[in-house]
Amino acid sequence: GVLHEDLRLLLDTALPPKRKKVVLGVGDAKMGAAVLEELGVQCQTGGVVAELLRGIRLHFSALVRGLTAQSAAKAQLGLGHSYSRAKVKFNVNRVDNMIIQSISLLDQLDKDINTFSMRVRSWYGYHFPELIKIIPENSMYCRVAKFIGNRRELSEESLEGLEEIVMDSAKAQAILEASRSSMGMDISPLDLINIESFSRRVISLSDYRKELQEYLRSKMSQVAPSLSALIGEVVGARLISHAGSLTNLAKYPASTVQILGAEKALFRALKTRGNTPKYGLIFHSTFIGRAAAKNKGRISRYLA
């Protein structure tokens, strides 16, 4: 409730000089307190005042000379935008926005790559089911599936290229041997083209994920070098994202930082009168990961 200069001027002009008996109806109690403090005018809120204000809002275009319902709607829209902009307080100098967006995109990419890789596995698995056990890693499986294509065309000449992908001569040899005695079904050239095309897109997403992680690492080292050095770029970025900004995270007490990301578990524990969680997102730090089970809570508190 801050009394603007324009409002002060309007009230000084409209109200009589002797204001002891004047009661001003206002919609906001804080504004009423500001008017009372600045001008010494008694203010009333709620009850009949709310009904009067509702009537004024309803017939506003009729009460103000030269104002149409259309121009009133435009004015309301402009006021709404100005109010929202002031509430959001968008700061163009904030550098942690990019970190928040990057970590959100990284998490989404992880989910998408995993889903798509499983689709490639189940799709190509009809043709070469033995490959699933030999290559458990998703990204590498897509690369190998794209390289092999039709398993019947895999030969000794392909072994060198296969070794470059899997980086293991024993695995490459195992794939070659499995392809010769595979129990998978035959596949048409059209099906193979579709599988290879989809595998290419999954590989492209995996490569972009690595680039994004590198970008996040460099951004975190610029914006929050101390946080990155302490708990790592990814965990640090997740904490910033969850807090809303680096400034918010810096203002949080250690007890809040410790359980940041475990709010559901905390409220469940408070509701059921159970044990509260000892850590949230901070659990993914290497310090807590390497600690013994009995010391994890203590280390997380110290780290927070």
Automatic annotation (TrEMBL):
It comes from the Eukaryota. One of its GO terms (molecular function) is snoRNA binding. The keyword DNA-binding does not apply. It holds the Pfam family Nop. Residues 223-304 form the Nop domain. InterPro entries: Nop56/Nop58, Nop_C, Nop_dom, Nop_dom_sf, NOSIC. Its main location: nucleus. GO terms for biological process: ribosome biogenesis. It is found in: Nucleus, Nucleolus. Keywords: Nucleus, Ribosome biogenesis. GO terms for cellular component: box C/D methylation guide snoRNP complex; small-subunit processome. Involved in the early to middle stages of 60S ribosomal subunit biogenesis. Required for the biogenesis of box C/D snoRNAs such U3, U8 and U14 snoRNAs. Part of the small subunit (SSU) processome, first precursor of the small eukaryotic ribosomal subunit. During the assembly of the SSU processome in the nucleolus, many ribosome biogenesis factors, an RNA chaperone and ribosomal proteins associate with the nascent pre-rRNA and work in concert to generate RNA folding, modifications, rearrangements and cleavage as well as targeted degradation of pre-ribosomal RNA by the RNA exosome. Belongs to the NOP5/NOP56 family. Part of a large pre-ribosomal ribonucleoprotein (RNP) complex, that consists of at least 62 ribosomal proteins, 45 nonribosomal proteins and both pre-rRNA and mature rRNA species. Within this complex directly interacts with TCOF1 in an RNA-independent manner. Core component of box C/D small nucleolar ribonucleoprotein (snoRNP) particles; the core proteins SNU13, NOP56, NOP58 and FBL or FBLL1 assemble stepwise onto the snoRNA. Interacts with NOP1 and NOP58. Interacts with NUFIP1, RUVBL1 and RUVBL2; RUVBL1:RUVBL2 seem to bridge the association of NOP56 with NUFIP1. This is Nucleolar protein 56. It comes from Erithacus rubecula (European robin). The gene is Nop56.
